[in-house]
Here is the input.
Amino acid sequence: MSSQSSNWIKKIVAVLCLAGSAMAIYNVNSDVGPLQKTAETIACGADGCKQLVGLQRMPTSTEFTFQVQENSSRLQKVECARAFLLFGDYDCKKAP
Here is the structure.
């Protein structure tokens, strides 16, 4: 392998790393409002939950914890993950 080929491979890997980092930062810092509404509907139905009590944001997913009813200690977690690691639509489901 020539030195010139090696330099191109290094540049491509560097660009991919930068793009992945930018996508991860975007996933953690983007607006979570619409996703929260979807998660709340999954957790408690159309009537909604009492309140959001926990939110954990990661580059590849977001986890919501809702208080299901007023004056209740019952909590429901919903995990929302990207379709393709760092990009694609979110798919949300109740956590066990």
Q: What stands out?
A: Strands lie at 51-57, 61-67, 75-84, 87-94. The two ends are 50 Å apart (CA to CA). The chain has two helices and four strands. The CA atoms of residues 41 and 48 lie 6 Å apart.
